[in-house]
Amino acid sequence: MAERIRIGIYGYGNIGRSVEKAVLRNADMSLTAIFTRRDPGKVGTVSGMKATSVDNVLEFKDRIDVMILCGGSATDLPVQGPELAEHFSIVDSYDTHAKIPEYMEKVGRQAELGKKAAVVSAGWDPGLFSMMRSMFISVLPDGENNTFWGPGVSQGHSDAIRRVEGVADGIQYTVPAESIFNEVKNGSQAEYTMRQKLRRICYVVPDVDADKEGITAAIKGMPNYFADYDTEVNFITAEEMKRKHSGMPHAGNMFRNGSTDEDERHHLEFVLRMDSNAGFTASVMAAYARAAFKLSKDGNYGAKTVLDIPISYLSPKSRETQIAELL
C-alpha cells in the first residue's frame, strides 16, 4: 500500500467525532492525534485513541501530514486557522460566506510562511455547492442561480447561537420558502433576496435568570448569520432540547435556470439530502485532506478553496485510473 496520510483532528465536538469516523473509513489515511481544549482524560473517542491537549499540538509538527480543524466559524477558526496554518497543512469548513476572502488571506499568509497547504471552507456550502455554482454559471452564462438551504440544522448558525451571552444551548433550523422554491424549481429566472428565500428558526435553552429579550435581540441582529433573514427565536428547556432536537439532518438545493437561445430553456439542479450535517461535512473534509496532502507534496503552498483544486486530487485512485473509470 502507498504511504498513508497521517491525520490530526483539532477540536472534538460533533464535527471532530464525525471526522474521526470518516478518517477510519479511508484506507489511505491513519489517525495520528486528536486534540481537545477539554481535559483529555475525560474525553472518550470513537476509536479509543487517547485525546491530547491542544497545548501540546506543536509537538506533533513532524508527525502529522494534514490537520483537520473542527472548530466553529464564529470564533474558533478565525483564530485557529491562521495559528495552525504556519505549522501544519490544514483543512477546515469555515462557512461565514461574507468573510471567506478576509479569512483566506490571513490563513494563506501563514501557510506560505510555513510552506504548508491550507484548504479553507471545504464543506458542502461553502464547498460542493460553490463548485456547482461555478460550473453552472460557466456552462450556462445567460441565467440565474438560486440556492436554498434546508430544511435542516445549520451547524455554523447553531454554534453562533451558543456563543451568545446567556445561552446554555441552542440549535437553528434553516427553512426554505416553499412558494419561492417551487417557482425556481419550475424555471423562474427572477432574482430573490435571501430573506424571501429562507427563514431561520432558533431554539434556545437560556441560562437561569438570563435576559431573554437581550438574547433574542442579539440573535436577530447578528451580522452574517441572522440579520438578513426573518428569524424566529423560541425558548425551551434542556429536556425538550435533548428530546426533540438531538439530530442533525440537513438538505440543500442549487438551481440555475437559463437559456442558450430565445426558445432554448435549460434547468440545472444539484440536490443534497443529509441524515447528518456533521457526518457529511466530515466526509467532505476528509476528501480534501487528501487533496491538501497532494498539494503539499507538489510544493503548492498557501490557501486554496474547492475552486482551486483539481477534482482528481480528492480521490485515492491515480489520475490515470480515474480517467479510465470515470470519463
Structure in words:
With 327 residues, the chain is α/β, with parallel strands linked by helices. The strands form 3 sheets. A 7-stranded parallel sheet has the order 3-2-1-4-5-6-14, with helices on both faces. It has a 4-stranded mixed sheet with strand order 8-9-10-11. Strand 1, helix 1 and strand 2 form a beta-alpha-beta unit. The longest helix has 21 residues. 42% of the residues are buried.
Q: What can be said about this structure in brief?
A:
The chain has 11 helices and 14 strands. It has helices at residues 14-25, 77-85, 100-114, 128-139, 155-162, 178-185, 194-197, 212-220, 238-244, 277-297, 319-326; strands at residues 5-10, 29-36, 52-53, 66-69, 89-91, 117-119, 143-149, 152-153, 167-176, 198-206, 230-235, 250-261, 264-274, 302-304.
List the helices and strands and how they pair.
Elements: E1 5-10, H1 14-25, E2 29-36, E3 52-53, E4 66-69, H2 77-85, E5 89-91, H3 100-114, E6 117-119, H4 128-139, E7 143-149, E8 152-153, H5 155-162, E9 167-176, H6 178-185, H7 194-197, E10 198-206, H8 212-220, E11 230-235, H9 238-244, E12 250-261, E13 264-274, H10 277-297, E14 302-304, H11 319-326
Parallel strand pairs: 1-2, 1-4, 2-3, 4-5, 5-6, 6-14, 10-11
Antiparallel strand pairs: 7-12, 8-9, 9-10, 12-13
Helix pairs in contact: 1-10, 2-3
